[in-house]
Write a structure and sequence with these properties.
mainly alpha, about 0% strand, 5 helices
Length: about 120
């Protein structure tokens, strides 16, 4: 297993794609959807870290929620809002709650599209 630091955004997006499209992955459907959500959330967090590091080095020590709030000061407001919204959905999607149904394949596909666009839009 590779560490998060050495895992690239592209690898995480490919992992999410594989979990969504390959039924031979040894996990339940709900597990694959949650796993894809986690890979997407991690990819987005890395992209946000990179974007913030370009404009404001030294924010590495703060949590992801705070970074999402800071993002609006260092990028286009609509991009920051979209990143915050999809990150919030991904956070809910990757956590298991026995009283909730996990994310659907269509939801995770929509999140995958949004994360892919945000990764391209955020400064590197």
């Amino acid at each position: 297993m590779t560490s998060v630091a050495s895992t690239s955004i592209e690898e995480l997006l490919l992992t999410a794609d594989q979990l969504l499209s390959d039924p031979s992955v040894e996990a339940s459907t709900a597990g694959r959807h949650r796993g894809a959500s986690l890979a997407l959330r991690t990819a987005l967090e890395i992209a946000v870290d990179r974007a913030l590091n370009v404009t404001m080095p030294g924010l590495a020590g703060i949590n992801a929620r705070a970074k999402m709030l800071c993002l609006r000061c260092y990028t286009v407001a609509t991009t920051a809002r979209r990143a915050n919204a999809v990150w919030s959905h991904l956070c809910l999607g990757c956590h298991y709650h026995q009283y909730e149904i996990g994310p659907t394949k269509d939801q995770v596909h929509a999140w995958r599209t949004e994360v892919g666009e945000l990764v391209r839009e955020l400064p590197r």
